[in-house]
Specification:
InterPro entries: CellSynth/LPSAsmb/PSIAsmb, TPR-like_helical_dom_sf, TPR_rpt. It holds the Pfam family TPR_16. This protein is mainly alpha-helical. It is built from 33 helices and three strands. It has a three-stranded antiparallel β-sheet. The longest helix is centred in the middle third of the chain and has 40 residues.
């Protein structure tokens, strides 16, 4: 009996060369598609991220803007990735649109991952810190995942995504304009001209600059396009509104980097419009050129005349950053020191270590910059050689793709041309300004919008059937496990970090220090790797300790319990400060904070002076051009000398007075050396000059003390207290006329200065001029009507008695009022 065999009756492979990795056309999509609902949800997650990131902020966390944007990005990317992987497992099929940019985008994230390994602070490189989050590994991976998902789920050539980004940017500009004009929607800290949803005012200006090109297509359409039949066609009005507001912002800010970005974008859009046949655009080419050229001419004119809307701009915050020269010097020195970078978001550490000493002689001597002048300099400093190579590769393939687009006339799609023009402007901004999460997100969205149309035109995607080969099944299962576990782990830490951040916000708002301490402890428990929390907590504990020492035991509290409580606060402050340096030993601020804690405990803990000096020296290793640290070291030595002097004056038992005086001399010498080091870095460091004068005074080097005060007086000619102090020194140095003049100047600068008038009165009396002496005391009486000493002196002068013999003026104590 014969049996006719058919292919469908056979369950095994007919041929060992069955195709497992193949392309399908759009006609075959339905046969291989997974759950279309998953793709729709993923698509809306991409849309939500693109729309919300430029606008997103929340008041619950200490870092209200960048941290919340990063969390939003991760949430969208994480959920989208899980849905994509679930679809793969459920259908047994991997569907993706091939693009070489996947490798480039994830290559940037991989370079960041390597920098994390060699980072000076891995936690910061992983998650970022404070308002520095844009290039942390979590942010870059989230953006890379969203890029991949968007490239594979968007079906309408990106028209909906473009309109969503348009609306988001337009709303950000509207909110920014309201903030600029003081029309605040929100209360509290958000009711400020310094707050903008995209970051700073200049960041808003950069986005406005690229938007001039990005929005230009809305004023240049001819006819109805296929995408205009969607629900998004009603959003086109935001393109017109956004263009007008963007132009206003660029003109108002009138900053050359903003204009440079605008020029690059507009010139690129003009060039692309003329590059090929863009349908209806071709007939209106000269009209299209008119607006960009007009804006460029206007921008050049406004920069040349230095246009400044003073009445409005005077109310706006001034943003400062290191110069281009300083930023690139730090970047190159950092690259030599750590070829693989300091780690993402660790520019501040590199700045401390490599900043020029000349910075100390500027108004920024106490400023610690967490970003350089541009994102490019940040990348070199933080990412090192690998980040440079990854970025150059991205630029190379970006350029090749753009050249091909121009050659093909953007396939007749004018909107694609303006998208690429905007992306070129944002890449130019990469070399002119540091990026926040919003700018980085917009860059990725523009890249998606530039690439999506050509992928759709091909109407083909790659399909891998995981069920036809055990190898693919294993790899698919492994990818699902790795992806899901990665999202869960990152989500766990992100949630904990967010909870910790909210506790910091609560602590900073707390009025009661004990409540603040509880919140800081909760924050540290949820995120034990944030040194900032330990710094704030240790400072709060020390402040509470000072209050307790001042107020003494509580009602019904025994002395023993009080002493135990004080000792516990002392130990806690020290241990918490040590914890900060253990968590992040690379940050000079942690060592400075620890030294300050020791300094505050000089009279309570034996050996605190040595610990403070040692810790401050550790800070100097990490921040060698910091004059403040040398000042603090000098303060420790000066405080020790004063404490020993008080012990001598109190005639403490079992005290070797000769040894104690030698210790005083030794500490005064070291204090003077430290102050001199501080002054050598910062020539007009007023506090160091003052304290050095105090040291010379203690050493009875009055002429040297006078020299320091004369420097202070030259730098602060309108400070009455300096005039008063130098008057005392002049008198002690027998320069009585100079002392008299200095005190007169102090009174002129501050007529209510009772102490200056008091000594003027004494000098007049010393000179025998009782009438003028009486006038000074009568002026003092106006401000001190109930002071018995003043009343006694008035009575004495009214009686005509002279009791101050020559040379005895300084024997009289000042009023201290």
């Amino acid at each position: 009996m014969e049996t006719n065999l058919r292919e469908e009756d056979y369950q095994g492979p007919f041929n060992s060369e069955v195709a497992e990795n193949r392309e399908v056309s759009s006609g075959e999509e339905l046969s291989v598609a997974g759950n279309p609902m998953f793709r729709k949800v993923i698509r809306w997650l991409v849309y939500a991220a693109a729309f919300l990131v430029p606008l997103w902020f929340l008041p619950f966390s200490a870092d209200v803007s960048e941290f919340n944007k990063q969390t939003l990005l991760f949430a969208a990317a994480g959920m989208g990735l899980v849905l994509y992987l679930v679809e793969i497992i459920k259908s047994g099929i991997v569907r993706y649109r091939p693009s070489k940019f996947y490798l480039l985008v994830f290559g940037l994230a991989a370079a960041c991952a390597v920098s994390v390994i060699f980072s000076v602070n891995r936690t910061i490189s992983l998650f970022g810190v404070a308002e520095s989050r844009s290039v942390s590994l979590l942010s870059l991976l989230s953006l890379a995942v969203l890029f991949f998902l968007a490239m594979n789920v968007i079906e309408d050539r990106g028209r909906a995504l473009k309109r969503i980004l348009t609306v988001s940017l337009a709303l950000a500009f509207i909110f920014g304009m309201l903030q600029i004009f003081g029309m605040f929607i929100f209360k509290g800290a958000f009711a400020s001209r310094a707050f903008y949803t995209v970051g700073s005012l200049n960041a808003l200006g950069i986005l406005a600059a690229i938007s001039l090109a990005f929005f230009s297509s809305y004023g240049s359409r001819g006819g109805n396009e296929e995408g205009d039949r969607s629900i998004f066609r009603h959003l086109n009005i935001f393109g017109y509104i956004g263009f007008v507001l963007a132009l206003f912002l660029v003109i108002l800010i009138n900053w050359w980097p903003v204009w440079a970005v605008a020029f690059v974008s507009l010139l690129a859009s003009t060039a692309f419009a003329s590059a090929g046949d863009l349908g209806s655009f071709k007939a209106k080419r000269m009209r299209l050129f008119a607006i960009p050229m007009t804006i460029i001419v206007l921008g050049i004119f406004l920069m040349l005349v230095n246009f400044n809307w003073t009445s409005l701009k005077s109310k706006l915050p001034v943003e400062v950053a290191p110069s281009q020269k300083t930023s690139w010097k730090i970047a190159l020195d950092s690259l030599k020191s750590k070829p693989l970078g300091h780690g993402a978001e660790n520019f501040g550490v590199a700045y401390d270590k490599f900043k020029p000493a000349s910075v100390a002689n500027t108004i920024f001597y106490q400023v610690r910059f967490t970003d350089s002048v541009s994102e490019a300099a940040n990348m070199v400093t933080e990412g090192g050689a690998l980040a440079i190579l990854a970025f150059l590769a991205l630029l190379w393939f970006y350029g090749k793709e753009l050249a091909e687009k121009v050659k093909n006339g953007f396939d007749g799609n004018a909107e694609t041309g303006v998208v690429w023009a905007a992306s070129i402007g944002l890449l130019a901004a990469f070399f002119l300004y540091p990026f926040g999460v919003t700018s980085m997100t917009v860059l990725f969205v523009l890249l998606i919008l530039g690439l999506i149309p050509s992928l759709d035109l091909e109407q083909r995607e790659r399909v891998i059937n995981l069920e036809n080969d055990a190898k693919y099944s294993f790899l698919g299962s492994l990818a699902f496990i790795i992806g899901l576990v990665s999202v869960m782990v990152a989500g766990y830490f992100t949630i904990n970090n967010y909870i910790a951040n909210t506790y910091i916000a609560k602590a900073q708002k707390a009025v009661d220090r004990n409540v603040a301490i509880e919140y800081y402890v909760e924050s540290a428990n949820n995120n034990p790797n944030d040194a900032r929390t330990y710094r704030l907590l240790s400072q709060t504990v020390v402040a509470q300790l000072a209050d307790d020492l001042k107020s003494g035991p509580k009602k019904d509290e025994s002395r023993e319990n009080y002493n135990a409580r004080v000792q516990n606060e002392v130990a806690s402050a020290v241990n918490i400060a040590i914890r900060a340096t253990n968590v992040d030993p690379s940050d000079s601020r942690n060592w400075t904070n620890r030294g300050l804690i020791y300094e505050n405990l000089l009279t309570l803990v034996g050996g605190a002076d040595q610990a403070a000096v040692s810790t401050y020296n550790e800070a100097l290793v990490r921040n060698p051009a910091d004059p403040n640290t040398y000042l603090r070291i000098g303060n420790v030595y000066l405080a020790v000398a004063d404490n020993i002097q008080r012990a001598i004056s109190a005639r403490q038992a079992n005290l070797d007075f000769n040894a104690a005086r030698r210790q005083i001399d030794d500490n005064l010498i070291k204090a003077g050396e430290s102050y001199e080091r501080a002054i050598s870095i910062y020539n007009n460091f007023g506090q160091a000059l003052y304290n050095l004068a105090v040291v010379y005074d203690r050493q009875n080097k009055i002429p040297d003390a006078i020299k320091q005060f004369e420097k202070l007086r030259a730098a602060n000619p309108r400070d009455p207290s300096i005039a008063f102090q130098i008057g005392l020194l002049y008198y002690r140095n027998n320069q009585k006329d100079n002392a008299f003049t200095a005190w007169q100047q102090a009174v002129i600068l501050f007529p209510n200065y009772s102490n200056a008038r008091w000594y003027l009165s004494l000098v007049y009396e010393e000179r025998g001029d009782l009438a003028n002496a009486l006038k000074q005391v009568e002026e003092i009486e106006k401000f001190n009507p109930d002071n018995e000493i003043v009343k006694q002196r008035l009575a004495q002068l009214h009686s005509g008695q002279r009791i101050i013999p020559p040379g005895k003026v300084l024997d009289q104590e000042p009023l201290n009022q």
